[in-house]
Amino acid sequence: MAHLLEPTRAPEHRFAFIGVPHDAATSLGNPGGRFGPQALREALRGVFSWRLQNGRLADIDAGVIDLSAVEVADFGDVALSYHDTALTVEQTYAAVQRALAEGYTPLVAGGDHGITFPPVKALHDATPGNIGLIQLDAHCDLMDFSDRQGRFSGSSGMRRSVELERLAPANLVQVGLRGYATVEQFEIGQQLGVRRISATRFAELGARAAAEQALALASEGASAVYLTIDLDVINPGEAPGTGWPEPGGLSGQQVIDFVRAVAPRIAALDIAELNPVYDTPARTTALLAARIVLDFITTRVRAG
Length: 304
Prior knowledge:
21% strand, single chain, two-stranded antiparallel ribbon, 304 residues, nine-stranded mixed beta sheet, alpha/beta
């Protein structure tokens, strides 16, 4: 198996990078998310090759960290059937289910935000108890169905997720929502009892307090918590390479601080809506996504 980071001693922390190059249901935003997994893969390889020396890395805030017992296995990109969205859900589910069964923490890279439901379902089915879901996103993603996008799309991932037997809507915490939404998606969230920390409220709380609140709500009565990060949660001035840039939003540093705060309690992670077609020539968004993944890994290592 290929590796983005190969351990030099017996691995104590095992992560599986799983690419889901899917944007076939992206009929409303910018197409090109299918190129996201490879862009993130290349950015991560670059970070490890530029900064890692003898298995060690210096974190400016936390000091030197030893990654010699960390494995980041590259499970490759899921072979998708683009003609059948429901089948792509099954194919993605099977890839994440395999990683969980082999003892890896999934790091799923999209792709549009429709990539989230299959790994959430895989974690749900692999967990005996209830699970929680933290969603960093500008948008609600609670659409049930549309003639244009169907039931499985970047607009419906959270709706499908809260339909799972052991993922209660009250354990879905949406963080960073802003701007305007359809009445359907806004009201269904209220009716179901989904918890929300808007971008405005996030600014009032600060990243650490928002993370503590989100984690407390998502983990209430839950055995595992899933974290999904739609890169459009970040101000598009910092992260232009995304499917649906939304004015305003969190800063890259706020997202980094949030991820560092919740990482020790997260069982699986995905990063969605990385779109290299709209990124800067310097790959600003891809490098930010790689930084978020690296922070997730190093925080988990420091936490033991």
